[in-house]
Amino acid sequence: MKVLVLGASPKPERYAYMAAERLRAAKHDCYLLGARYGQAGHQPIWTEWPDPKMFIPDTLTLYLGLEAQKAHQQKILCSGAKRIIFNPGTENPALETLLAERGIEVLRACTLVMLTSGTF
Description:
Layout: E1 2-6, H1 15-25, E2 29-33, E3 38-40, E4 43-46, E5 59-62, H2 66-70, H3 73-77, E6 83-86, H4 93-101, E7 105-108, H5 111-117
Parallel strand pairs: 1-2, 1-5, 2-4, 5-6, 6-7
Antiparallel strand pairs: 3-4
C-alpha cells in the first residue's frame, strides 16, 4: 500500500517517526512529507508534495495539528488518497467533512495502534 505520512519527523521520539518505521517494516511504500529535509530511519523526508505521476497515496496519515494543516488543505483534498487517518491531536471536523463529501474514508485513529492490531 502507498502511504503518505504528512508531518514526518527525523526525531525518533515522535510518533510520526515511529509510524514511518513501522510502515516500512510492514512493507508499505511510504512518502514522508515534513517541514524540513531529513531522515526517518533509512527513509528520506521530503518538503514537497510528491509528483502525482510518481506517487498517489492509498492512505494519507496526518501528524500535523489543525493550524499546520491549513497550509496543506488543498493538497490533502486533491492527494488522490482513498483514506485519511487523523491521528490523535490532528482532528479537524471541517476538513473531515470536506473529505467525506468527496467520498474519501475518514478515520480518527492511531496509525501505530492500527498497525499493531492488524487493522491498517
